[in-house]
Amino acid sequence: MKTFRIGGVHPQGNKLTAGQPITPVGLPKQAAILLSQHIGAPAQCIVAKGDKVKVGTLIAKAGGFVSANIHSPYSGTVAKIDVIADGTGYKKPAIFIDVEGDEWEESIDRSETLVTTCDLDAAAIVNCIEEMGIVGLGGATFPTKVKLCPPPTMKAEVLIINAVECEPYLTNDHALMMAKADEIMVGIELLMKAVNVTRTFIGIEANKPDAIALLTEKAHAHKGVEVVALACRYPQGGEKQLIDAILRRQVASGALPVSTGAIVQNVATAYAVYEAVQKHKPLIERVVTVTGKSLTHPGNLLSRIGTPISMLLEAAGGIPEDTGKIVLGGPMMGKATANVETPTGKGTSGILVINESEAHRTAPSPCIRCAKCVSACPMGLEPYLLAKSTMAGNMEIAEKGHIYDCIECGCCTFSCPAHRPLLDYIRQGKGQVMGIIRARNAANKK
């Protein structure tokens, strides 16, 4: 069974919600829609206090080439333009909407009818994806339109659909595949047309045999689409690791993934593309896995963007008494939040409640030079050296060690027998090095 060739670890899956159907969540009384819920420039607000909006109304326009439109997931009245703490705890600008009923824009097709035909050309499909605010739903939230428009010197040869979902606990993509396989297949065809390729590989890890079987069956009716079963190994859902696993091509340091001839899109993004192009539906909701060993009703919840995470936790049975930490995302790459009123964004794939006994790190001890972090790093880096150079403030060594290639997967910290917080230091050093590189490039342009 295929997998990537460098590094990786095998954390316990804990797919507690595997097999759980998608369950819709109710609407909040007031919602906060963040203006920055994608990689790139924040969207620019185009509504004002007192404006009436419907579900699907454009409320913020992309603030640059690498940015994304934002549409209202609710109908009601704009209460204010203010700030609210996002998942990181920093206050960010948001549009607050008092929810009144559930009136949708008439242009949105809300029927369950599968629409398979599309007369749009590639440029029109990409334009529709941009207009509807579609971003990558695997976690990075990179504007999809940008990925579909690679530099002129690079050409896509193949599309890879990331249906791996290697992060422990999360099952939102799995649930979506089981519920919306036909729509996903149409979305894949639209993406293939948009980038002018004739082959697509859907990568799915072997711990989802029902999804592998279902999508393999559906792929028979779609020329050029093939499902690839992958061995369970984290972080196989990383873009560079997935390209290596399926195509046996490695992305060079500093190069774009499309340099290998592959464009990678998440499976939930393919579904969002179907809804955008075939149903004229903006990205206003997504499936969120709400899970944890102490939750009474963990599940895969269909949630409108901007729903407070407290509502999703309530739908899962409420916050357990033994809760030690609430993480947005999974345990490997997710980040803890201290505010349960934080609104969900386009990139909110999961909410993980970790009990008190598992929430605290073991006190670190001195590095024993075992090199387990080196063996585990899927980017072929030396995490102990990058962490040490950051601690010492030696950014020259960190840069020479390609710290900017770190994908922040956490394999180094996970594998360290001394329990050293390697990724924490590497993240800090990566930020500093990237700042140095940007300053140097700006100076060279003068």
Task: Walk me through this protein's architecture.
By secondary structure, the chain is an alpha/beta fold. The protein has 3 domains: 27-108 and 282-356, Roll (Ubiquitin-like (UB roll)); 122-279, NADH-ubiquinone oxidoreductase 51kDa subunit (Rossmann fold, 3-Layer(aba) Sandwich), CATH 3.40.50; 372-445, no CATH class. The protein contains 14 helices and 17 strands. The chain has a 6-stranded mixed beta sheet with strand order 1-14-13-17-15-16. A 4-stranded antiparallel beta sheet has the order 2-8-7-4, with no helix packed on it. A 4-stranded parallel beta sheet has the order 11-10-9-12, sandwiched between helices. A hairpin with an 8-residue loop joins strand 5 (58-61) and strand 6. Helix 1 packs across helix 4. The chain starts with 21 loop residues before the first strand and ends with a helix.
